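Lab manual, section 2.4: Encoding a predicted structure.

Procedure: take the sequence of the chain (415 residues), apply the prediction step described in section 2.3, and record the output as C-alpha cells. A sample record is shown.
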Amino acid sequence: MRKAVLTINAILFLLPPLLSGQSIFAPFVSGLKAEVNHNRILLSWEPAPVETDSQFVYRFDEPIDSSSFSQAARIAELDGSDRVFTDTPEDQREYYYAVLISNENGRPYEYFIPHRNVLVEPVSVVSTEVLNNFITLNAIEATAEDDSILLKFEASSSRGSLIIYRGTQSIRDRSDLLRATAVASVSAEMKEYRDYPIPGVDYYYAIFDTKAAKSGNYRFVEGENVLSKPIRLPLHSGTHRWEADSAGGEVRIVPIPTLLLSRGVRSGRSLSTDFTTLPEREPLNEKTLDVWKSLKDTKLSLTYPTRKMDFDLLEEERAKPNNSSAGRLSGIVSPLLKGEEIDSDLLPMLEKQLVDFLDENIDEELAVRAHFYLGQVYYFQNKHREALFEFLWAYDRYYTKVQAWLNALFSVIQL
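Recorded output:
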C-alpha cells in the first residue's frame, strides 16, 4: 500500500464531503474527457490522489447526477490505477459518462462533480456505413526543398477532397487542431502538396478527409495522416511566399515583426536611438476628452446592419464556359442566370447538386466557386452555420463578395 500525501489536489478532493457536512473522505477522479475516434469513445482522466482498489465507469443517455445515477449503466470495473477506458457503443446515440471510485465495501462514492468525474457534454460514435465513406490516408511524409516543404501522401480513394493542417506543435488530438491552421483543400487524387511556410520554424502536418473534418470525425494516426516528426526550412531558404493558386495568382509577402531593442541583452546599457521606437505616452488633449465625454454614456451597438441579399452569380458562369467541368457548374447554377427569385423547393436540389459536384475530381478554382454558390444556397435555407463554413473556402479569392455575405450572416447567425 502506498502512502497518501495531502497535496492541494487531495485537499480539493476532501472539499465536497466537508462542505456537505459529512465526515467521510470521498475520493474522485478529475479531468474526465472523451475523444471520439470513429466507432470508439476513448475516456481519459487523472486518478484520485490516494490509492484506491477499483473504479467504475458509467454510461447514460442523460446527464449523470444523483437523480439519474440509478438508471445509468455500469459498463466497466477497472483497477484503481487505470487512467483510460475505450467504449464501443452499439448505436449512434449521444451518451454521458462518469467515473466513480469504489469504497471498501465495493460500492461507488456517489459524488458527481461536473468537468471532473462527470462529462457535461454528450458524445456519440459514427456508424460503420458513414466511416466507410470517409477517405483515409495510408502514408504521409515531408521533405524540405529550397523554399518549400513538399508533402507526399497516399489516399484510399481518389474521389472527394482532403484538408491539410499545419501547426508548430504536434497534432495528436482535436485540442491540437485549435492551435493549427488549415492551409489548403486539395483533390483526393493528388499525391503531393507544396507548402511555403516561414523558414527556421518547426512544423507539423496532418491531412483529413474534408467530409470527416466537417462532421468532427478526426482520425489521428502518426505516419499515416499525421506527421510524427517536425520539419523546417533552413533560414537561408529565401523570401517566404504564399501562392493564391497554382496558376500563378497573387503572391503575398508575410510580414515578420520587428524586434526593437532599447538596451543591450547582456550589458543592459542603453543602445543607440537611430531606429524607430514606440512613441512616448502623452495625455489626451482637450478636444479628444470632450469627444470621449460625449460618447462614454452612449450605448454602442456591435450588431451588423441587416440587408437583403440576392443570389450573386460570378462572371465566370455568365461567360458560359466550354470546359466540361466548368460547364457542369454553370449548368447547376443556370437558374440564377435568369435573374428570377429562386423557388424555395429548388434549393435542396441545388444543394445536393453542388455537394455532389464538390465530391468529383475538380480543380481548386472550380471548387472555390462551388463553395461560394453552396454558401448562398445554405444561406437562403437558413442554414447559417453551414453557409459560414462554405463562404470561408472562397474568402481569399472573392474577398469583397464573400465579406458582404459574412456581414449578412453575422446579423442573424447564432454562434
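Check your result against the sample. Confidence is low (pLDDT under 50) at residues 1-24, 242-254.
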